Amino acid sequence: MISGRGQKALKQRVWLALEDADNELSMLMRDLIAEQMAELDRLNERIQSLDKRVEQMSRAVMPCCQLLAIEGVGPVVATQLYSALGNGDAFKKGRQASAYLGLTPKQHSSGGTASIKGIGRTGQVSLKAALIRGAHSVINTMGDKQDAKSRWLRSLVARAGKNKAAVALANKTVRTAWAVLHSGQSYCREFNDGSALMVS
Questions:
Q1: Where are the alpha helices (H) located in 120-200, listed in sequence order?
Q2: Residue 60 half-sphere exposure, CB side, CA atoms within 13 Å?
Q3: Model confidence over 85-115: pLDDT tens digits?
Q4: Cβ distance 138 to 92 under 8 Å?
Q5: What pLDDT, on a 0 to 100 scale, did the predictor assign at position 112?
Q6: Contacts by 82-87 with C-beta closer than 8 Å and gap 24+?
Q7: Residues 197/179, Cβ–Cβ less than 8 Å
Q8: Short-list 195, 180, 196, 184, CA closest to 69
Q9: Taking residues 73-81, what's their average pLDDT?
Q10: Which of 11, 46, 77, 94 is deepest in the core (most CB within 10 A)?
Q11: DSSP alpha helices (H): ranges in 1-103?
Q12: What band does 170 get if pLDDT is binned at 50, 70 and 90?
């Protein structure tokens, strides 16, 4: 059985197979698969319920609510960032917070020559992945916006491609989040380049 990508396509393909009386599936196998599909539905309902609770919490806790103003940060990422960074006092700079989460490139020096490696699989993998997904969303929806941040991002995409630009934006998002948490100030979209809150 071949299915398209995504859960929706998989479920449609499985139910078509179960309804096909002429295929080679036994009744026992049909029952087992139907039970697994029902379990998948229950798990999806549970996830939706948890997502709603996370969203409610993110809007009830002031630091999380402030983080939600940053582009590419949703309720889950906001709560994860607050959980990971706290009030920011554990880090002297936003760069340290970004390095802690694994979003700064690694450097390797040999013979007096320094080379920049990728970000690798270090740090908090799930949060890092969520931040990069959020950055991709920002890139895909920026259109022809002319604010400073969008111009910087558009130029970066042209030079380095979407994936590297997404990592750079995720890095910038963490630094901005650290500045918000550390200072207690709100993030202002008018200063869309993050300069009012960004630190090195």
A1: 125-141, 148-160, 162-183
A2: 6
A3: 999 999 999 999 998 998 886 544 444 443 3
A4: no
A5: 47
A6: 82/181, 84/124, 84/127, 85/177, 85/178, 85/181, 86/181, 87/63, 87/181, 87/182
A7: yes
A8: 180
A9: 91
A10: 94
A11: 7-19, 27-60, 62-67, 75-85, 94-100
A12: very high
Q: Is 86 left (phi over 0), alpha (psi -120 to 50) or beta?
A: left
pLDDT at 199 over 80: no
Q: What is the DSSP letter of 2?
A: -
Q: Can you read off the two tokens belonging to residue 157? A: 């995409």
Q: What CA dihedral angle connects 167, 124, 200 and 111, to 10 degrees?
A: -80
Q: What is the pLDDT of residues 8-38, one digit of tens each?
A: 888 888 888 888 888 888 889 888 988 998 9
Residues 98 and 74 sit within 8 Å (Cβ to Cβ)? no
Average pLDDT over residues 169-188: 89
Tokens of 106: 């690694």
- Please identify which residue in the block is written with the tokens 């990971």: 84
Q: Give me the residue label for tokens 């111009």.
A: 151
Q: What is the per-residue pLDDT for 165?
A: 92
The most distant pair of C-alpha atoms in the chain lies apart, rounded to whole Å, by 70
Query: What's the one-letter identity of residue 36?
Result: Q
Model confidence over 57-68: pLDDT tens digits? 777 788 998 999
